[in-house]
Amino acid sequence: MENEQIQENPSYWNSVIIASLVVGIVVTAFAIIGGYMTLGSEPSGSFFSSAQLLGTIGCLVGAIGGVLANWHYTKEYDITYKIGKGALIGLFVGLGATIVSVILGQIWNIIDPSFQQALVDWNIQNIEAMQMPAEAKEQAISGMENPNSAKNIGLQALFTFIGLGVMNVISGLIGAKIFASEE
After folding, report:
1. How far apart are CA 68 and CA 26, in angstroms?
2. Domain positions in the chain
3. What is the percent of the chain with per-residue pLDDT over 90, rounded to a whole number?
4. For all residues of the chain together, what is the average pLDDT?
5. Can you tell me the distance from the alpha carbon of 16 to that of 19, in angstroms, rounded to the nearest whole number?
6. CA dist 34 → 17, 54, 66, 89, 101 (Å)
């Protein structure tokens, strides 16, 4: 009886791990490349730049993790399941990709220790060039503490998980509907 249960519900963790690694690496690569593009540009005082667009595109590309995991899971085991399970798989991909992304980001801090601080300095210069009241500038600049503090790393992980989690839950629903739909 237990053997039949295992056959009916094979583990989806391999699919989650593969998709998490792919998404985590892609998101981190886009963020690092976008960061260096930002550092290569002059602070203009605008809220959004073409270099920051690359990070946004990376986040959107990271949304394919739920579809990728569901595709892999259904092709590996030739099974069908409800879309709720696809959403759960997508959520786990978002969590796994966040962990991979934070770890790779910390490894990059070892490779280039000045990268995060250079981005903070660039952002401070950009804020100073903005047409906004002095009080607002002071408040924005004071919020930029040590980028490598545990607090900021935790906040980065939280915001990454919220973004990737929501996007991959949605893409997990879509992936389950496309690949594992119980018609």
Report:
1. 13
2. 12-179
3. 62
4. 89
5. 5
6. 25, 5, 24, 28, 15
